[in-house]
Every structure is written in C-alpha cells, then in structure tokens.
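From the shared-data thread, chain only:
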Amino acid sequence: MNFLYTLKAPSPMFSVLVITGVLLILFIILYFIIKKVDYSKETPKWLVPFLWIVDLINSLTRTNIGKRWKSYAPWFLTITIFIFFSNISAVFLLDNPTGYLIVTATLALTTFVMIQLTGMRSLGMKAYLKGFLDPFPILLPMNIISELSLPISLALRLFGNITSGTAISILIKNILDWPMNNVMIVVMPFINLIFDLFSGVIQVTVFLMLSMVFTSNKVKDEEKIYSE
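Structure, as tokens:
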C-alpha cells in the first residue's frame, strides 16, 4: 500500500478537472434534490450546512460590497468551494492544485481583474484612473506597482502556505517510511487530514477575506450601504 502515498497525478490539470467534474455532478444532483424540498415544513438537517455556508458568504459579501452584493456572492462562493477542495485534494490521493503556482496565479489574476472592473464600475473610469495619482501625481509609479503586487501577493501566499503543509507531510512520511512501514500506512491518512484540512480551511478563509476587502476598497462608500 506504500504506492498510495507516492501516487502523483500527471499534472495539476488532472486534479483540477477531477475536482471540477465531481463538484459539477454533485451540485447538479443537489440542485434537483433541493428543488423537491418543501420549505413550508421543517428544514431537513442535511440541508442546514449548505444553507449556513451560503448565508455566511452572502452576509460577508453584503457587509463588504453593499448594494451590489448579489453580483459578487456567487463568485466568492465558487472560489471558496473550489479552493477548499483543491487544498484538501491530497486526502483523496490527488495532486494538490493549489500546490502549483500556475493554479494560484490563475485564481489571483481572475480575482485581480474582478477587483479592477469593480473600481471602474463603481467609481467611473475617470475617478478610477485619477486614483493612481493620489495623493500626489509623482506617486503614480508606486501606485501602479502597489496595484500590480496584489495578484502576486495573493498567488504566492496561497501557493506558499499550501506547499509548506505538503512539505511537512512529506517529511513526516519519509521519517515513518523506514523502518516503520506499517505505522506509516496507519498514520499518514491522519497526518494528511490534519495538515490539508486545517491548513485548507485557514487558507481559503484568508484568500476569501483578502479578495473581499480589496474588492470593497474599490467600491464607493455610498454603495456599501445595503438595504433590503
């Protein structure tokens, strides 16, 4: 059974496709099941965790984004689910997609584009561009560098933290691999679960909150006031 802990997918794309495909199938099935739920009766207990997660994301988005929150909540929920399952994919014997810089860079760049489009939409193009000259026009190069450092920071932070957890798991695996092969088989699933699950939850929370905060910074103050 040692091969289970050395199994490697051919590329991060394999894991991404598997995770995306499985989640897509699960959510399609979940959609049809939820459609049959009678909301006039007591909410089924199995549905409570799903409702809690959706309500949490919606609440955080309303607080940070304001009246346009419905345009952003689906995106934040999507990256939360994808990054979480990517972070813990090693538990299911898959390569960890967020352990590859190309994957975290793609997530960071997508978020960066959304943040910039939010600024253009909320502030207007003139005010958005003028923001690069604040507080003094001479700071234009610094403001541009500061803005461009955002996706680099998001990508490297997620990549570094996930990679460090993977490295620690590999070190423990190598220590237990000889001469305690049988011990490794029993211990490693728990080691992977601890590092991948614990670190995975933390890192998805960090990425989500930073994405929300940076997006919120591009929204005009008057638009952040949400009312039903």
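The helical segments are 12-35, 48-65, 69-87, 101-123, 125-130, 140-177, 181-216.
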